[in-house]
Amino acid sequence: GRRIVLANGCFDILHVGHVRYLEGARKEGDILVVGVNADAGVRCLKGMNRPILDENARALLVAALRAVDYVLVFPEPNVESLLELLRPDVHAKGTDYTEATVPERATAERLGIRVAIVGDPKLHSTRDLLDSIRKAPHA
Fold first, then answer.
1. pLDDT confidence of residue 139
2. CB atoms within 10 A of CB 90
3. pLDDT by residue (tens digit) across 41-72?
4. How far apart (Å, rounded) are the C-alpha atoms in residues 44 and 55?
5. Residues 3 and 28 sit within 8 Å (Cβ to Cβ)
6. Is the pLDDT of residue 137 over 90?
7. Which tens digit of pLDDT belongs to each residue from 102-117?
8. pLDDT tens by residue, 121-136
9. SS3 of the chain
10. What distances in angstroms separate CA 70 from CA 46, 65, 107, 132, one per listed residue?
């Protein structure tokens, strides 16, 4: 009778936007499962200089967050296979998506999984964080 939520992402360098996304996802149900993109998947999505942290470190950081119950690393380019396997009640995506642009939307619809857009406006990104670190004066 408990509602399961699946969220996913790269979580390359954990920042406040990630935390707010996962807290928003948790509010959609009782158990939050988070899929973390494998290193090869992050390279495909973000470029050859990424990830900064390896998949095990990223999974450990995400697992340490209070809102998160379970974490797994997945090698596929999206979470369609996880939706098939886990059959969560809710598939949570961040505010950089709309319900129409969620890559797994058709699979979620077919399985009767509700899609929820959660988190704060996309005002934070790992790319921006890395840029500000690179530009910061170093003593």
1. 59
2. 20
3. 999 998 999 999 999 999 999 999 999 999 99
4. 14
5. yes
6. no
7. 999 999 999 999 999 9
8. 877 777 777 777 778 7
9. CCCEEEEEECCCCCCHHHHHHHHHHHCCCCEEEEEEECHHHHHHHHCCCCCCCCHHHHHHHHHCCCCCCEEEEECCCCCHHHHHHHCCCEEEECCCCCCCCCCCHHHHHHHCCEEEECCCCCCCCHHHHHHHHHHCCCC
10. 24, 10, 22, 31
Instruction: List b or e across 117-133, with b for residues whose CB sees 16 or more CB atoms inside 10 angstroms.
Output: bbbeeeebebeebeeee
Task: Please tell me the total number of residues recorded for the chain in this structure.
Answer: 139
Residue with tokens 């973000």: 46
Contact 59, 20 (CB under 8 A): no
pTM of the model: 0.90
Residue 41 · residue 76 · CB < 8 Å:
yes
